[in-house]
Task: inverse folding
């Protein structure tokens, strides 16, 4: 566990009261935790600005598995980048539609490029990347 | 597979040329597919504006598993909302850090609330929700 | 000026060091100020979730003034919502293109609807809304 | 006015029907216009990825004008970057709060840095940048 520091911020009384009521509605039980989350969010955006930084990401895809060749191409793409793909989880939404989540790790530039390629595959109805972190650099 | 329609748009020549070069760099091999993806993105945002709409979502969490009680609370939270949680996938980033992806389905309002609660748990370093779709309404 | 409160957060040492270097690169000279900005950002998003809340907004439009009837329709739209439009500033980007910024105030729902209508006008090449605040509620 | 091209996309019937109803609610009277706007949005994001590209931007600031030295520092900052600042529009929200919109033009990297500096000034309660375009490259 990381070494903790105590830091005092000055903040308008009203602002703090309104923030407390917001984070309570979101389920936070602890104000420091909510503020640390804002800080970490800002840092993760920064990590992703550097193409050589080591990062983690998840790609969420919704697609129609009847779509000719799509499942095949998706598997191919993942195998050709086996160093980046950690695991892929697949559920059946209905007779036609699948949802798949792929966890990726690697250099930011390569992770981003692979994610774009998967989303661009013909037959993928919706695709989104979450840029996240390997965790060690954000305490 | 959905019934297809052919629709003709008028678009400035230069705009189309620049768009072609952008989507090619993203890995699209087909211009219609890229435009359909833009259209679907806009529609999914709309789905999520209505709290009673049925949706799918993924939640990506990075956390330190040494953090007191966190893994326990996360499991508890998922069990108390078993109707919303489809599956949860977990990987070990290093000695301390885990990455977990939870796939959720249900009414938009409930899915959103559960996702916020998981992200707000003390010890979660980073959390992001992807709002996606059950697929059948977006062709 | 608002009554200030002093509040102590506990935060991992490394996280704080990395945050300090990020905000310094952004031009902040004061860490409390950077954190207050994160807090205010979160609150303003919340204000905009309630359609009846009083808000302020700016709409940025880029358009070709040769486009038939556009300037006329844009002026018309603003006059029909004179209670929402505070001021409009216009510059000439080149022979064809204009950039216009419109400052709006009013109930969130009405402000949002008027902004969408302006952006949807035929001939508007790019339009974006900034959701901001009347300022008094965020200290 | 740009040379127009006609381009036919194939798109699922249902998807198109749902999109039509969405854009109608946003005030679009023309489907091609809505799709061109999606395409332009994607291209403008791309323009801003290259620090040397010529761009336009607006910065929206809300601040308390009683805040010691802020108005002075803001004016100073704008004068030191006179080549980037086109015009600044200022309204009084109430006794304390001002809203100011600054229109900027120049190399993307410099515009971004100046915008960040203004937002980081102590006393600025809320600041947001809109990344837009000089218009000529997006038809």
Result:
């Amino acid at each position: 566990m990381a070494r903790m520091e105590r830091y005092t911020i000055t903040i308008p009384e009203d602002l703090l009261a309104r923030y407390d009521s917001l984070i309570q509605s979101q389920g936070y039980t602890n104000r420091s935790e909510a503020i640390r989350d804002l800080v970490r969010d800002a840092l993760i955006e920064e990590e992703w600005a550097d193409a050589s930084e080591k990062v983690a990401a998840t790609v969420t895809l919704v697609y129609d598995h009847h779509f000719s060749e799509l499942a095949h191409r998706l598997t191919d793409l993942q195998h050709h980048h086996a160093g980046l793909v950690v695991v892929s989880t697949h559920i059946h939404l209905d007779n036609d539609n699948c949802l798949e989540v792929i966890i990726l790790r690697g250099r930011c530039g390569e992770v981003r490029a692979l994610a774009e390629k998967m989303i661009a595959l013909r037959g993928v109805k919706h695709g989104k990347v979450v840029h996240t972190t390997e965790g060690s650099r954000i305490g």
In short: The radius of gyration of chain D is 19 Å. Chain D has two domains: 13-47, 54-138.
